Amino acid sequence: MGWVRATVLAWSLTGAAMAQTAPGALPAPTGQVILTVRGVISVTNGNTEAALDRAMIEAMGVVTVHTGTIWTDGTSEFQGVELSRLLAHLGADGTTLRLTALNDYAVDIPATEAVEGGPVLAFRMDGKDLSPRDKGPLWMIYPYDVNTAYKNEVSYSRSVWQLSSIEVLD
Predict the structure, then answer these.
(1) pTM over 0.70
(2) Which of 85, 124, 148, 166 has the smallest number of CB atoms closer than 10 Å to its CB?
(3) How many angstroms separate the CA atoms of 120 and 140, rounded?
(4) Chosen CATH of 2-169 out of 3.30.870.10, 3.40.50.150, 3.40.50.720, 3.90.420.10
């Protein structure tokens, strides 16, 4: 229950900071940056990119997905923000997304993958925050068990763990 209170507090603080920021601008992150989004976006906190800490990502709205993966045993509970919500929040307007991990693994996916009920940038699995050692701090998870159309090699290759940046391309 403590994480719920912390999430609400972080959302309130981030919302208050955003209200004091110019339109099209994000506040500067106050915690460690875990995701950088650049490219064709209209909302930034730098010259051309959005640097996001965990609280900023959580403030966009946390969803929960119950699904199994080919990398884990059984069904797990993942919490994170939907990719579609993140991109909408940042005013993304491109056709391709380049996802890059901490180890420089990169994959291009069509922006049309970012749909409600689609991929989630998970930061928590089974109640535990994801660390780089555990595929975090962000792991793009598809709801494989909810929509079995995601159970294929293409979706698996797009399930980037240790996600560190997204570039929105024309």
Answers:
(1) yes
(2) 148
(3) 6
(4) 3.90.420.10
